[in-house]
TrEMBL record:
Keywords: NADP. SUPFAM superfamilies: ALDH-like. InterPro entries: Ald_DH/histidinol_DH, CoA_reduct_LuxC. It comes from the Bacteria. The keyword Repressor does not apply. This is Acyl-CoA reductase LuxC. The keyword NADP applies. GO terms for biological process: bioluminescence. One of its GO terms (molecular function) is acyl-CoA dehydrogenase activity.
């Protein structure tokens, strides 16, 4: 397969996924191999929801919508146009995937195949229903992929490079175990928002999406606010109120109740509105149903702090606070060229 053949295959996959970007899927007659795969994928979506209570129908649909919109000819070509694919030496690349949000490892899967390599996938037990089915779809619409996609639950063997995502603890294991292989090892990261107090209602409402989408489980979810001294949180609470139905979902409510009890028993100061607690804390990683915040007095000092802590931060959401910021409401809508941890996966894959 040449690059254009691989692009065409993923465009077909994007067209297939476009049928499932709303809660109620709509079958399209123009999608290739649809009679073979449409009903089967609906069944896999149901299995994913039953297997993992965090994978609600709405969250899965949101993920599929993003991928359907990303996998177009224009987007794929814009992403890849500046890379040199002429001297790729096909290798077998192992991917160890996280399972915190639906299809969280798909970008790595796409990157390996689009660069002409073989992929060996070890999935998280929390997210193993969807990707193998989509891989089968790719093999039908582009038979040249057959033999290039392998899933395993066993120990990884016979591979040439690895992309692994996990916690800080597992990353240390990965770094030791894969020390002799070309690798990308990803650790814990969280996203932050910098508030200056002049944000509009619309911007704060968009920020609420960055906080609550996927229940805050993604590394691109905002888990901490930096706010000016004496910031009035009533404007923030008013803006996020549109997400209040989230408290009716049992897994989220259980976490809210548990963390609230812990804070009250520990006599921590915190503010809450019935479905979200905010607590002053220097940490970046906040528990589910909790948002940490920290005051700042000087813009330059905060910029230096965020720069020093760059290896802990995935995204910075703000209005023109620093370079490489993400607009309010856009953390969970990354482009193909928005690489996790800022590490260019395609460049890595073209050099191995």
């Amino acid at each position: 397969m040449d690059l254009q053949d691989r692009i065409n295959a993923f465009v077909k996959l994007g067209e297939f996924l476009s049928q499932f970007q709303d809660i109620n899927s709509v079958k399209k007659d123009t999608v290739e191999a649809n009679d073979l795969f449409f009903d089967g994928f609906k069944h896999q979506l149901k299995l994913a929801q039953e297997h993992n209570g965090w994978f609600t129908k709405a969250n899965i649909a949101f993920t599929l919508k993003n991928w359907a919109q990303a996998l177009t000819q224009d987007n794929l070509k814009q992403w890849l146009i500046n890379y040199d694919f002429k001297s790729v030496n096909p290798q077998k690349v192992a991917i160890i995937m996280a399972g915190n949000i639906p299809l969280v490892g798909f970008h790595d899967f796409l990157s390996v195949l689009i660069t002409g390599h073989q992929v060996l996938v070890k999935q998280s037990s929390n997210d193993k229903q969807l990707l193998p089915f989509l891989a089968k779809y790719l093999e039908i619409v582009a038979p040249e992929f057959k033999g290039n996609i392998t899933f395993t639950e066993a120990k990884l063997e016979n591979f040439d490079a690895v992309i692994a995502t996990g916690s800080d603890n597992t990353a240390r294991y990965f770094e030791y175990y894969f020390k002799d292989k070309p690798s990308i090892i990803r650790k814990n990261r969280n996203s932050v928002a910098v508030i200056n107090g002049t944000e509009t209602q619309e911007e704060l409402e968009a920020l609420a999406d960055d906080i609550f989408r996927y229940y805050g489980l993604g590394c691109r979810n905002v888990s901490k606010l930096f706010v000016p001294k004496d910031y009035d949180f009533q404007y923030f609470f008013k803006a996020v109120y549109k997400w209040n139905p989230i408290i009716n979902e049992s897994k989220y409510a259980n976490n809210y109740d548990y963390n609230k009890a812990v804070y009250l028993m520990s006599e921590f100061d915190m503010l809450e509105n019935g479905f979200l607690m905010i607590k002053e804390d220097q940490s970046y990683a906040s528990p589910i149903a909790t948002l940490f915040y920290e005051y700042y007095e000087d813009r330059n000092t905060l910029q230096e702090k965020l720069k020093a802590d760059a290896d802990k931060i995935q995204c910075v959401v703000s209005r023109s606070f620093t370079e490489n910021i993400v607009d309010f409401g856009e953390t969970q809508n990354p482009q193909l060229w928005d690489y996790a941890d800022g590490e260019d996966t395609i460049e890595f894959l073209l050099k191995i």
